[in-house]
Write a structure and sequence with these properties.
- An eight-stranded mixed β-sheet has the order 2-3-4-1-5-8-7-6, covered by helices on one side.
- 22% of the residues lie in helices and 45% in strands.
- It has 135 residues and is α+β, with helices and mostly antiparallel strands.
Amino acid sequence: MSRVQLALNVTDVDAAVDFYARAFGVGPAKRRPGYANFEVIDPPLKLVLFEAEEGATLNHIGVEVFGTEAVAATARHLADAGLDTRAEEHIDCCHAVQDKVYASDPDGLEWEWYTVLADSPSPTPAAAAEPAACC
């Protein structure tokens, strides 16, 4: 099983948490200063919110897969399809330790396929300065 991740920049994370909790009927699965994520069952969605100066913009798109093997299989699939990829293993990013693989569309929109290995109390220094830098 997998689910699409939608990562949004929002100007007020508290207000956005309130809105999305009411809209999807579920509270955040993880909450940190300037950050929240939701694990929505219906529709199957990982919604991630980053507090930023410019809101209502797309931060990145991800597909959460469940296991390192699924990340590796996706990396093989993307490479076999002739796409350039970038992989990261055991990276501390977005308040979690993750394995992931990235590919960008022709306009430069980055997609990531990732699995969460463990929780992390805070983002990496790069992520704190620039959320899209790690996620």
